[in-house]
């Protein structure tokens, strides 16, 4: 079976996010005064073949833990979807 | 775009060109053939408006091993060493997507030098933007600088010099010229040629996608707001793959069997294959089904015209293919035999067994008509000449004037730019950015190579002939300042539309001025690039020839650096 | 003579520079080692040079850390052989967990190349014995992700164990704000593991080994390693 | 009212994704043979003050269009949440 896993990698709360702060500053400079805080993360889409949803989920979790996120800086969240026409 | 226009017109060909194509073919072209012509006969690939004028440049000298006509020029350094160098522009792509536009400029010029058999040893860049108090211009500047750094840094080639100027003339059409300098032993120099019927044609590096289809045509039009809509999918550079391709191709050179190599630049496979066949005076047969692809359902012409980056075309002696493919596999790259050299002078494109195009190589590569449009001195010059400088009041406070000058973005330090480029990698940079020319040491000798890129659009606007000559002279002075003797130049001619008599006049004048200065200084032109149609909403940029000069220092230990060194030293002003 | 292995990953680009310094300036037995190698037993010391392994895609060093050769690096590090990571090599060592912390994007978000000064924090290490305590070295940096980060507990531990070897400083050795080129916590430019045989640093010492290139200050790192390896000096942190 | 907008920025389908390809290659080399394709994108979290959900949504959309995504290469999707303890 074919699945799509969406992995969201975000910075840990206590880690400084210079890029997020830069975007925040830029948005305010553009006039969006309501913006209070911006955090930047990564969004990774994985298409994979696996025997079952449970297997796909656990494989994707493992990939996220081992490679996609650096535990010193980041946390992650994996959402599994069926790979539809969404390639 | 109206759909009632014939395809040739939609593709940017003129009627006389279409008729010449029919005449060369003896029949009406198919869509595939027409699309290939449209790219090969675009200004960007065919130099229709510039060829006759460029012939006026001095290109010979005892130091010149390779003049214009190949991927890059070559000068002799003695001790069996050769210096390979070339400049290229990516103005329009950078105006649309500054980071990727500039990154792919660097990738392309690196591959031009690599295709010559050389190891790139330095990069330089010449940039023009509108005034930096505008957010859009700052966005372009920071994107371009980051993009150049992204590609060059990752490849491990130091960016050792360049120039940046700001002027409203470039607000709608920034300039991004990139220069690469490489080093080879004389006998290692390769040519971009296909020869020997039966020899094989390979495409190596990345897979082919739909990106950048029509890029050459895009570069041959003025920019406007509408450019947004009809631009091709932007090409994304992959310096990581570029680096692997560089290593793999050098490994291939070592094992031998390489007849010729060319980068897949503007015009993609079509341009690379046809130009190689044309140089060798041979024909070629390509099967698009053999080209490794990134996307499904690509039409033959899409494969032939894609400008996907990080690809090169290799002509290889038959029987060497297994070894070549093994090398590229080892580096994780694609390598596929896509065709064969023939002896009939025909460029034949097949999709499996089906022939989709058959065109005489010479017509496609060299058959575009040359134009010598009207040239007329622009009116603004008369007004400018009538200006009486005496009417300017004497400044009350020269200190204030000095402060104003120093605060100008055009005079301020460029450290913000060059600190984003790795300029130390390879351990060759004896004098880096921040001074006059950069100076690189030549391993295994006492010698050094000086490199510099210079141009001044404002001077050229005021007097294109003098302005271009001044740019050559300035580059030469910079090279001399680090203790080297100027050897040769490459150049990038950035102008507006050649179909405007005023622009064409500027172009002709600038080339004349450059030729004069090169003759006077004994620095022949070994190649270059022409970028026309640098306009926004009908307004041309300043005429901006960019000069890339190389020089040789006999003893790199005895170089000079700018800056006063010790109290008590004597200060001398040379020249009038 | 000591035997050095210089690891090469796809995208590494400073391997030749390090090789040149070790072989031609310092006359050592040094060779390049491809990332697929599984045995590093034959080397006294292994260097992970700078560059952009795997294009620095995802995070600098993240992909290289999974190369087959890294298993062998764990092995020899365990055995007390010397391991030095320069720039991208430092990033790989932190990703691999051989050194604590992580190297984040530079605080100002730009790639930065230029001369920096670093202060030598300790000289009782196999990598710095050639220097004087507190000596300030002039060495270039060139990186986009060199901003050292560790959570507060880890950082405290790093300091407690004296694992900081180099800190960005001004030419007088002071830790001023402007001397820190990338926002690194505690001005950290180079650290070692607790055992003292694995070190990583962001500056490029191989670029500062010849006067004609602007400085010879980086040479001491390699000289110290050679000294340690050839004189068989025993070494302990704590 | 305070909202959190999550902006997902992905590369256009026809745009080359060198980073995604490198990650894909790395995952396969790590033994995840089932991985067919990887695409990398950005995940941006914005906290903002706005008079109504509709206003927050339209502000976030506008920020995404003008700054967060580069329309030449990327597309985006905005999801609005109430800003809870989620920070
Ligand atoms: N301004 C110029 N001065 C001298 N030679 C030039 C100039 N512009 C282009 N040429 C030469 O014309 C030839 C074709 O240019 P090239 O840049 O290789 O085309 P393309 O960019 O389409 O590959 C090259 O040999 C180049 O050196």
TrEMBL record, chains A, D:
Query: Is ATP-binding tagged as a keyword?
Result: yes
Pathway noted in the entry: Purine metabolism; IMP biosynthesis via de novo pathway; 5-amino-1-(5-phospho-D-ribosyl)imidazole from N(2)-formyl-N(1)-(5-phospho-D-ribosyl)glycinamide: step 1/2
Molecular function terms, GO-annotated: ATP binding; phosphoribosylformylglycinamidine synthase activity
Principal place of residence: cytoplasm
| A GO CC term assigned to this protein in UniProt | cytoplasm
Query: Which GO biological process categories is it annotated with?
Result: 'de novo' IMP biosynthetic process
- Annotated keywords: ATP-binding, Cytoplasm, Ligase, Nucleotide-binding, Purine biosynthesis
Report the EC number(s), separated by commas if there are several.
6.3.5.3
**Residue stretches in coiled coil:** none
Q: Cite the Gene3D superfamilies for this sequence.
A: Phosphoribosylformylglycinamidine synthase subunit PurS
Domain of life of the native organism? Bacteria
Compartments, record wording: Cytoplasm
What is the catalytic activity of this protein?
N(2)-formyl-N(1)-(5-phospho-beta-D-ribosyl)glycinamide + L-glutamine + ATP + H2O = 2-formamido-N(1)-(5-O-phospho-beta-D-ribosyl)acetamidine + L-glutamate + ADP + phosphate + H(+)
Q: What InterPro entries does the record point to? A: PurS (IPR003850), PurS-like_sf (IPR036604)
Quaternary structure and partners: Part of the FGAM synthase complex composed of 1 PurL, 1 PurQ and 2 PurS subunits.
Which PANTHER family does this entry report, sorted A to Z? PHOSPHORIBOSYLFORMYLGLYCINAMIDINE SYNTHASE SUBUNIT PURS
Family according to the record: Belongs to the PurS family.
As for what it does, the entry says: Part of the phosphoribosylformylglycinamidine synthase complex involved in the purines biosynthetic pathway. Catalyzes the ATP-dependent conversion of formylglycinamide ribonucleotide (FGAR) and glutamine to yield formylglycinamidine ribonucleotide (FGAM) and glutamate. The FGAM synthase complex is composed of three subunits. PurQ produces an ammonia molecule by converting glutamine to glutamate. PurL transfers the ammonia molecule to FGAR to form FGAM in an ATP-dependent manner.
HAMAP family reported for this sequence: PurS
The protein depicted here goes by the name: Phosphoribosylformylglycinamidine synthase subunit PurS
Q: Which organism is it from?
A: Brockia lithotrophica
UniProtKB/TrEMBL annotation, chain C:
Q: Which PANTHER family match?
A: PHOSPHORIBOSYLFORMYLGLYCINAMIDINE SYNTHASE SUBUNIT PURQ
Q: Which UniProt keywords apply?
A: ATP-binding, Cytoplasm, Glutamine amidotransferase, Hydrolase, Ligase, Nucleotide-binding, Purine biosynthesis
Where located? Answer: Cytoplasm
Matching entries from PROSITE patterns are given as: GATASE_TYPE_1
Gene Ontology annotations for the cellular component aspect, listed alphabetically: cytoplasm
Entry EC number(s): 6.3.5.3, 3.5.1.2
What name goes with this protein? Phosphoribosylformylglycinamidine synthase subunit PurQ
> What are the recorded GO MF terms, alphabetically?
ATP binding; glutaminase activity; phosphoribosylformylglycinamidine synthase activity
Question: Superkingdom of this entry's organism?
Answer: Bacteria
Entry-linked InterPro entries: Class_I_gatase-like, PRibForGlyAmidine_synth_PurQ
Record's Pfam families?
GATase_5 (PF13507)
| Coiled coil regions, renumbered to chain | none
The protein's assembly and partners: Part of the FGAM synthase complex composed of 1 PurL, 1 PurQ and 2 PurS subunits.
**Record-linked Gene3D superfamilies:** 3.40.50.880
What does this gene product do?
Answer: Part of the phosphoribosylformylglycinamidine synthase complex involved in the purines biosynthetic pathway. Catalyzes the ATP-dependent conversion of formylglycinamide ribonucleotide (FGAR) and glutamine to yield formylglycinamidine ribonucleotide (FGAM) and glutamate. The FGAM synthase complex is composed of three subunits. PurQ produces an ammonia molecule by converting glutamine to glutamate. PurL transfers the ammonia molecule to FGAR to form FGAM in an ATP-dependent manner.
Instruction: Name the pathway it acts in.
Output: Purine metabolism; IMP biosynthesis via de novo pathway; 5-amino-1-(5-phospho-D-ribosyl)imidazole from N(2)-formyl-N(1)-(5-phospho-D-ribosyl)glycinamide: step 1/2
Show the SUPFAM superfamilies listed in the entry.
Class I glutamine amidotransferase-like
Provide the catalytic activity annotation. Answer: N(2)-formyl-N(1)-(5-phospho-beta-D-ribosyl)glycinamide + L-glutamine + ATP + H2O = 2-formamido-N(1)-(5-O-phospho-beta-D-ribosyl)acetamidine + L-glutamate + ADP + phosphate + H(+); L-glutamine + H2O = L-glutamate + NH4(+)
**Species this chain originates from:** Brockia lithotrophica
A biological process term (GO) from this entry: 'de novo' IMP biosynthetic process
* Active site residues according to the UniProt entry: 87, 204, 206
Instruction: Kindly indicate whether the keyword RNA-binding belongs to this entry.
Output: no
């Amino acid at each position: 079976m074919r699945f799509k896993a969406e992995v969201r990698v975000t910075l840990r709360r206590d880690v400084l996010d210079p890029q997020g702060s830069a975007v925040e500053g830029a948005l305010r400079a553009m006039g969006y005064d309501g913006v209070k805080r911006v955090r930047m993360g990564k969004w990774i889409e994985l298409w994979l073949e696996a025997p079952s949803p449970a297997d796909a989920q656990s494989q994707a979790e493992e990939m996220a833990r081992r490679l996609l996120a650096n535990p010193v800086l980041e946390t992650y969240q994996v959402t599994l979807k069926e790979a539809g026409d969404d390639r | 775009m109206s759909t009632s226009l014939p395809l040739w017109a939609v593709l940017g060909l003129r009627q006389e060109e279409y008729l010449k194509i029919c005449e060369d073919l003896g029949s009406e072209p198919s869509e595939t053939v027409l699309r290939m012509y449209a790219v090969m006969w675009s200004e960007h690939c065919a130099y229709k408006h510039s060829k006759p004028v460029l012939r006026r440049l001095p290109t010979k000298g005892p130091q010149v091993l390779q003049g214009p006509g190949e991927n890059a020029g070559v000068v002799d350094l003695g001790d069996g060493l050769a210096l390979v160098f070339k400049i290229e522009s990516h103005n329009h792509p950078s105006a649309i997507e500054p980071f990727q536009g500039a990154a792919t400029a660097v990738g392309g010029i690196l591959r031009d030098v690599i295709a010559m058999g050389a190891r790139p040893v330095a990069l330089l860049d010449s940039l023009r933007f509108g005034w930096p108090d505008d957010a859009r211009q700052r966005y372009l500047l920071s994107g371009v600088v980051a993009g150049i750094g992204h590609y060059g840094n990752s490849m491990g080639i130091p960016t050792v010099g360049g120039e940046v100027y700001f002027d409203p003339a470039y607000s709608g059409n920034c300039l991004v010229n990139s220069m690469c300098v490489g080093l080879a032993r004389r006998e290692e120099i390769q040519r971009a040629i296909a020869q020997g019927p039966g020899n094989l044609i390979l495409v190596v590096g990345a897979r082919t996608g739909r990106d950048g289809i029509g890029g050459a045509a895009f570069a041959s039009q003025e920019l406007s707001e509408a450019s947004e809509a009809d631009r091709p999918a932007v090409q994304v550079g992959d310096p990581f793959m570029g680096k692997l391709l560089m290593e793999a191709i050098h490994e291939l050179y070592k094992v031998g069997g390489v007849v010729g190599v060319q980068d897949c630049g503007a015009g993609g496979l079509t341009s690379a294959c046809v130009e190689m066949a044309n140089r060798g005076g041979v024909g070629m047969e390509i099967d698009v089904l053999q080209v490794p692809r990134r996307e499904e359902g690509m039409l033959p012409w899409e494969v032939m015209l894609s400008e996907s980056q990080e690809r090169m075309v290799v002509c290889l002696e038959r029987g060497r293919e297994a070894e070549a493919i093994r090398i590229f596999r080892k580096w994780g790259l694609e390598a596929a035999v896509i065709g064969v050299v023939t002896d009939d002078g025909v460029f034949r494109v097949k999709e499996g067994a089906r022939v989709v195009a058959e065109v005489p190589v010479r017509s496609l590569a060299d058959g575009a008509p040359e134009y010598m449009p009207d040239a007329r001195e622009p009116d603004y010059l008369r007004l400018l000449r009538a200006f009486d400088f005496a009417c300017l009041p004497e400044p009350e406070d020269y200190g204030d004037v000095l402060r104003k000058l120093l605060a100008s973005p055009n005079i301020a330090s460029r450290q913000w730019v060059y600190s984003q480029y790795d300029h130390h990698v390879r351990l060759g940079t004896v004098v880096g950015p921040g001074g006059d020319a950069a100076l690189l040491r030549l391993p295994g000798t006492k010698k050094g190579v000086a490199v510099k890129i210079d141009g001044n659009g404002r001077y050229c606007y005021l007097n294109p002939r003098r302005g271009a000559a001044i740019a050559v002279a300035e580059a030469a002075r910079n090279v001399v300042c680090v203790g080297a003797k100027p050897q040769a130049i490459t150049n990038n001619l950035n102008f507006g539309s050649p179909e405007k008599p005023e622009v064409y006049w500027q172009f002709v004048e600038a080339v004349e001025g450059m030729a004069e200065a090169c003759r006077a200084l004994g620095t022949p032109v070994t190649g270059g690039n022409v970028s026309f149609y640098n306009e926004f909403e009908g307004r041309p940029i300043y005429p901006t020839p960019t000069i890339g000069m190389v020089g040789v220092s006999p003893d790199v230990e005895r170089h000079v650096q700018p800056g006063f060194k010790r109290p008590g030293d004597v200060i001398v002003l040379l020249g009038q | 003579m000591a035997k050095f292995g210089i690891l090469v990953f796809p995208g590494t680009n400073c391997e030749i520079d390090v090789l040149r310094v070790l072989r031609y300036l310092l006359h050592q037995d040094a060779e390049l080692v491809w990332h697929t190698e599984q045995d590093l037993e034959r080397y006294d010391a292994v260097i992970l040079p700078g560059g952009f392994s795997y294009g620095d895609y995802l995070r600098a060093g993240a992909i290289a850390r999974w190369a087959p050769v890294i298993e062998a690096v764990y092995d020899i590090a365990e055995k007390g052989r010397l391991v030095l990571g320069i720039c991208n090599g430092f990033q790989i060592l932190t990703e691999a967990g051989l050194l604590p912390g992580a190297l984040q994007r530079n605080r100002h978000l730009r790639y930065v190349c230029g001369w920096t000064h670093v202060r030598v924090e300790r000289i009782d290490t196999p990598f710095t014995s050639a220097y004087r305590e507190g000596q300030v070295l002039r060495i270039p940096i060139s990186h986009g992700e060199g901003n050292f980060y560790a959570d507060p507990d880890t950082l405290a531990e790093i300091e407690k164990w004296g694992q900081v070897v180099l800190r960005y400083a001004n030419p007088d050795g002071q830790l001023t704000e402007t001397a820190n080129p990338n926002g690194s916590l505690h001005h950290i430019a180079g650290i070692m593991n607790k055992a003292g045989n694995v070190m990583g640093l962001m500056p490029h010492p191989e670029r500062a080994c010849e006067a004609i290139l602007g400085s010879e200050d980086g040479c001491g790192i390699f000289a110290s390693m050679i000294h340690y390896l050839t004189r068989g000096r025993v070494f302990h942190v704590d």
